[in-house]
Design brief:
This is Glycosyltransferase family 1 protein. Keywords: Glycosyltransferase, Transferase. The protein is of the alpha/beta class and 393 residues long. The protein is built from 14 helices and 15 strands. Helix 1 crosses helix 14 and helix 7 packs across helix 12.
């Protein structure tokens, strides 16, 4: 068989109702598959106010809003209507992109119908409790994730560093890579816009420390703001530019009263905003890849990031940016100060990052995942598939 023979049922906890890096990657994947004449059907919660139009056919899965984070929805068990739709569609592979209730239900449906399953890992869910004073839950979450991923025929991670974490956690025997790409027409050094900077009161000689992402605590907002406090106490001249929206914006604004909040940006506007920074600070440890890190590199600006999954596979420490021990505020501040006081070093590291970013082509990356689908379907048909991890215990 080849890619055009695929009939993929893709389950997502958030395909398009809130914009984030994971669901944008999924939509790009579906677009690529459809161009290869594969068939794809997406099952996800929906709302009346989606963040963007979905790519491909989207079937609504019953869901409920999270009480303290109503912008997100939790998928429930597959309804009889969804199961009827699945049966009529008759997929030959199931892709699970979030370990939620609907995905657990989908694993049971796929096993019953002898359909191979692949799971993609998009975020480190087990680390989230750290940001809400519930770190004691982490081992429980790891155990739950292990049970889920071991039921799949294979799992894919967006970076080598995250794949190694999954192997160390014994999540599955078959761990592959589905990386991320970057649109070089949008994210490029040429998109830097001096007039746009000036519109925010940023002088041409100002060194701008940027943050890009959803404004939620799990993105490391506390570490970011503590680092900026250190820079200010040291008297290092700089400006702070925050790009993004989210429920923690009010908290972030109160912590950084001198920062410039540009709000949500997308497409060419986002490329312009990133290229108009002088350095990016990304202290998050929850990313499995770090789309914003790659986008900043493509724009030719150096990245100061946590030495954690995702950034470890992207940033060459001391060459295209700096990798800092998670939470080490003083070291983050040291790295930013070096760039602020030595713009030539920042330009050198930024240029190295832009060269590395040239490797990341969306079509090449998505083709690799499509070939993994084909392999799993073929293995199931030939009876040569690897047994799911749980069957080997």
């Amino acid at each position: 068989m080849d890619i055009s023979d695929l009939r993929i049922a893709l389950f997502s906890g958030n395909y398009n109702y809130v914009r984030d890096g994971a669901n944008q990657a999924l939509n790009r994947l579906v677009g690529y598959l459809l161009r290869q004449n594969a068939q794809v059907r997406v099952y996800s919660p929906t709302t009346d106010t989606p963040a963007f139009e979905p790519t491909g056919d989207l079937i609504s899965v019953p869901s409920f809003a999270i009480p303290n984070r109503p912008e997100y929805r939790v998928p429930m068990m597959l309804s009889p209507g969804v199961k009827k739709d699945l049966k009529a569609y008759a997929p030959n592979i199931v892709h699970l992109s979030s370990p939620d209730i609907a995905a657990h239900s989908a694993t049971r449906w796929a096993k019953k119908h002898d359909i191979p399953m692949l799971a993609s890992v998009h975020t480190r869910f087990e680390t989230y409790p750290r940001y809400y004073n519930m770190a004691f839950l982490e081992p429980i979450l790891v155990a739950g994730l292990r049970r889920f991923y071991r039921r799949c025929d294979a799992i894919v991670a967006p970076s080598d560093s995250m794949a190694q974490v999954l192997r160390d956690q014994r999540m599955n025997y078959d761990v592959g890579i589905w990386s991320r790409g970057v649109d070089r027409d949008i994210f490029h050094p040429s998109k830097r816009d001096v007039e746009w900077r000036r519109s925010f009161g940023i002088d041409d000689e100002d060194q701008v420390v940027g943050f890009v992402g959803r404004l939620v605590m799990e993105k490391g907002l506390d570490v970011f703001s503590d680092t900026i406090d250190r820079l200010e106490r040291r008297g290092v001249p700089h400006k702070v530019l925050i790009v993004g929206e989210g429920p923690a914006r009010q908290w972030f604004e109160s912590r950084l009263p001198n920062a410039i909040f540009a709000g949500f940006q997308s497409g060419p506007d986002l490329g312009r905003a990133v290229a108009s920074m002088d350095m990016l600070l990304n202290p998050s440890v929850t990313e499995t890849f770090g789309n914003v890190t790659l986008e900043a590199m493509a724009c030719g600006i150096p990245v100061v990031a946590a030495r954690a999954t995702g950034s470890l596979s992207l940033v060459a420490d001391g060459i295209s940016g700096r990798l800092i021990r998670p939470g080490a505020v003083q070291n983050y501040a040291d790295a930013l100060q070096d760039y602020c006081e030595n713009p030539e070093l920042a330009r050198e590291h930024g240029a190295a990052g832009a060269k590395r970013a040239e490797r990341y082509s969306w079509d090449r990356i998505n083709h690799g995942l499509a070939e993994t689908y084909v392999r799993l379907v073929r293995q199931r048909a030939e009876g040569t598939k690897h047994l799911p991890y749980e069957a080997l215990r």
